[in-house]
Design goal:
Number of strands: 0
Structural class: mainly alpha
CATH superfamily of the largest domain: ABC transporter involved in vitamin B12 uptake, BtuC
CATH architecture of the largest domain: Orthogonal Bundle
Shape: globular
Length: 265
């Protein structure tokens, strides 16, 4: 009796993870790109490594540790930017380095088996669990619902913060909530594609979509489709050639961006 890859739970989880990753990329990634928050998001992503190291040392779920550090970092970056006590780029660089340092220190202090850093850095989509899928689905649904309900405040906060302030759409509140959702989405995607590669899935599809679309809804839809196709193709190739899925997905998306830019030029 032949067995298919779909007969295995880890394969079904990987496919579900790809679909949800594309959905999160469409909503969250578009906001990151249009607000030009790539550098600050990179800081949040790498700072979350501190939570992973702390979680291994303390013996609780690394995803929870990454999530807590990512949210704390996003709030700290927003506070630093708003109050102006320290330059935003300096604050991001400091928190980025601090999070990575804390992660390395606590991983070295963890008793017993030393966890494989490659899994954290480059991800392992086959290690995604049912709980990870459920949390990602909840986050994707929440992000989609908030985007639909508060579309105009989000739109004007992204493109015209001054008008959003005049219209009393509370751009500071919108920015804070968006930063927390970015932190949550990034943290839940780390296990699939890794700390180093996760940002590419949230920025490269949007860069491709911006070549063809110039309105926020169209960028979201097109970037989501690009992320889905690129991630699904990368997952298939990683199965076929026994390669790291996160690296293959990133390579495909990067090559697609280069191809589109060369054709457009």
């Amino acid at each position: 009796m032949e067995t298919s890859l779909l007969d295995y739970a880890f394969t079904r989880n990987a496919i579900a993870a790809v679909i949800l990753l594309a959905a999160l990329s469409a909503i969250v990634g578009t906001y990151i790109v249009v607000r030009r928050l790539v550098f600050s998001t990179g800081g949040i992503t790498h700072a979350s490594f501190g939570g992973i190291g702390l979680a291994y040392w303390a013996g609780f779920d690394p995803t929870l540790g990454a999530l807590s550090f990512a949210i704390a970092t996003s709030i700290a970056i927003n506070a630093a930017t708003r109050k102006g006590h320290i330059r935003p780029d300096s604050a991001i660089a400091m928190l980025w380095s601090l999070g990575m340092a804390i992660g390395v220190i606590f991983l070295s202090l963890s008793p017993g088996y030393a966890p494989n850093l490659m899994g954290f850095m480059f991800g392992d989509i086959l290690a995604v669990s049912h709980t990870d899928i459920l949390l990602s689905a909840i986050t994707a649904t929440l992000c989609t619902a908030l985007t639909i309900i508060f579309y105009r405040p989000i739109l004007y906060t992204a493109f015209d913060p001054t008008y959003a302030q005049i219209a009393n759409w509370r751009p500071t509140t919108v920015t804070t909530i968006a930063s927390i959702l970015i932190a949550v989405a990034i943290s839940l995607s780390i296990k699939a594609v890794g700390i180093i590669l996760v940002l590419s899935v949230f920025t490269i599809p949007q860069s491709i979509a911006l070549v063809f679309a110039h309105s926020l809804p169209r960028i979201m839809v097109l970037s989501g489709l690009i992320a889905l196709v690129g991630s699904a193709a990368g997952l298939y190739l990683s199965f076929a050639f026994d390669l790291p899925s996160g690296a293959v997905i990133t390579a495909l998306l990067s090559l697609s961006l280069l191809f589109v830019k060369s054709i457009k030029r």
